Amino acid sequence: MNFIKKFEQRLIEKDTILCVGLDPALPKQRKKNTIPSKFVKKSEDSEARLSFCLDIIDKTSDFCIAAKPNEQYLRGFTSQQHMKLTNSLRKEGLLSIYDCKLGDIRSTAESALYYFRKWGYDAITFNPFPGNMEEVVKISHESEPYLGIIVLTLMSNPEAEKFMRYAIVKNKPVYLAVAEDVKKYNADGCVVGATGHVTQEDIRLIRKITGNEKVFLIPGIGAQKGDPKKVIRAGGKNIMINVGRDIIYSKNPKVKAEEYFKMFNKVRKAD
Amino acid sequence: MNFIKKFEQRLIEKDTILCVGLDPALPKQRKKNTIPSKFVKKSEDSEARLSFCLDIIDKTSDFCIAAKPNEQYLRGFTSQQHMKLTNSLRKEGLLSIYDCKLGDIRSTAESALYYFRKWGYDAITFNPFPGNMEEVVKISHESEPYLGIIVLTLMSNPEAEKFMRYAIVKNKPVYLAVAEDVKKYNADGCVVGATGHVTQEDIRLIRKITGNEKVFLIPGIGAQKGDPKKVIRAGGKNIMINVGRDIIYSKNPKVKAEEYFKMFNKVRKAD
Predict the structure, then answer these.
(1) What residues make up the domain containing B263?
(2) Is the pTM higher than 0.90?
(3) Which chain B residues are within 8 Å of A49, Cβ to Cβ?
(4) What angle do CA B85, B91, B92 make, to 5 degrees?
(5) Total domain count, chain A
(6) Which of B108, B127, B162 sits opposite A72 (nearest CB)?
């Protein structure tokens, strides 16, 4: 089944647009927002991070449609550890999106896709700068199992404006050219920020270009204080809002996930 | 010691600009250009790939200044396996460049840099599309040990022209704006293609903007048939030419590496 269909089915079954961001940082890595010591004490670094992720999945799965493990926090994971993670997500009925921002070409990209497929992810994020979206989408959709491609379209960090908004290609800002490529090459969705310089009008414009069915993955709500109303109204039906540290590092991830679940659904149902 | 100084010292000691590309593909992954069955037979996937890489390093180190393991072929490696790889490179006097095309922001990028440093790489490749080169260079240079940042500037695949050459920011093509950022934010070097649409004039322009000392990492010679004369003459002194499959999958990697070593030095010495 293709990724968009899988997403739409899951949206009906679970009636939530919350995606939990799995960003397990070790205490030796930084001071704030790290995994609790009980996980670190009993095992080596990768096993500690995996146990923490499995625990978060267990606590939050009722309120989530998907989980987005970020590669930068999972470095050093073995193939087996990735598979344990995706298996747990599959069992709980959650989509698994590997946030790896793949940006490589030809046989090299193909090698990465071999592993992502083997590891059991439903979709990955993709950096379109090397220009080979068509090629990567093709390889990802034509082999089994199907792998969704969600394309970095407009990020919300201030410096992202330079190459995404102010760079102009064929008379339009790069982020709209990327959105056109998403439609043209049949990618599965877009990563669109929810805060900073990204306006409601930006999200509306991207949605207009891609059509209604592409899945928008929207980070920036939660600790980053983006406005859920803004993105839910402009983003349309097929969106997932990612919340990471505000859930996973809270005292009670289950309660926090439920809060976001209710907050998002209140806006969705009111519209 | 900073990466450029380390490179310049190594260039004097070893008198070579050859960088060997470590792209270990498993036989079950594709039909051509895969690691010999003797490595695959005796161990599981990651150990097989590691043994192959260590064998290539052993055979080619006399002729190389650096090795560039590509992340897309090393997926599933543990931290220990990465450390074994960089230890072997250090012992043989080779620089280690992790070709991971990092393109992430803030604390997320910082998490990746934590692992790259722990694994012992001398430098990584960086995708500038999210616009945060300044931030990533700062984190990479200010913590110990120093990590070099080599920025994707102009890639040689045909589709790369769209966002790198034809997209215009502040009246110039994106690839020249990226080259300016490399200079301004004090990154350590540029990835510049050697074939396809990339001309000698492109390489000269990038060198003019960045100044003479930045290290250019140049793929596209070897199986991709780029012209070494073109890149050596336009690239200047501080360049590394990466050759991957034409060495590592040849019948005799040692002989092949020596051929490239001699070919490049002939051009260098003639100029």
Answers:
(1) 3-270
(2) yes
(3) none
(4) 95
(5) 1
(6) B108
